[in-house]
Amino acid sequence: MTSESKIDKDKVRNTSSQFLTRNSVTDRVATKMVEHLMHHYHHHMCEGDVDKPEDVLNIEECDVWSSEMAKFDRETMVHVWKVRHGSKDESDLAAFKPIKELAEQMLRADFLVITSPVWNFSVPYALKQYIDCAVQADLSFHNKDEEGPSRPYFTGRPLIVISSSGGKAPSVHEDYVFPFLSRVFAMCGFDDAHRVAIEGLAIEDKEKCFERAVEEANCIADKVVRIHKLQLAMNE
User: Fold this and answer.
1) Of the candidates 159, 158, 142, which has an alpha carbon nearest to the alpha carbon of residue 231?
2) By three-state DSSP, how is residue 122 classified?
3) Would 8 be classed as within a structural domain?
4) Is 53 helix (H, G, I), strand (E, B) or coil?
5) Residue 96: which region, alpha, beta or left (left: phi > 0; alpha: psi -120 to 50)?
6) 21-42 pLDDT, tens per residue?
7) Residue 102 resides in a domain
8) What is the CATH classification number for the domain harbouring 20?
């Protein structure tokens, strides 16, 4: 969702790995949270100067299950490696282009929202493939060099993970979704990580799960906007 405005807009990136239905509880929670984030941001950042919240925040959605999503297979990996080592071959550059675009799109986001079901204690393969495309050394983060180890181009941006599972959450030692996502995106500068875990969808009333999750998600949205406002004030 985009809208033209005379003011500079921050961006919310919603990376979705929900695919069974567009009306899933996880998808609905993410939609409500982003709406709340927009209105809360508008209230705190614009002081009534802008008529519509969507004129302040630019929402970009990425469906990792889309047939148009870039694939990071063996052939693509070889092309990317060649470009990183100086190749100007047209086929290499053509394969590298969508990878570069995904990385740049991610880094434009001021807030990153990821929705994902829990599959076998982890994330679906489509979300992992998106990460393998978008998270690239010297595109998404500084690769290790003589100045030090791998490091992000910036720090302090929020990551909000909305995960769902049919049963109750596994023990902390068996939960790989949030630890994995928070670690990999921290490397790209999204190191203020938050999670909304929607549990028990197969055994509890889905609407009650939805209501609890929306309340929790909105509290997180309020928090990240307040922190973002403080960061902007400190940089003035």
Assistant:
1) 158
2) strand
3) no
4) helix
5) alpha
6) 556 888 889 888 888 888 777 7
7) yes
8) 3.40.50.360
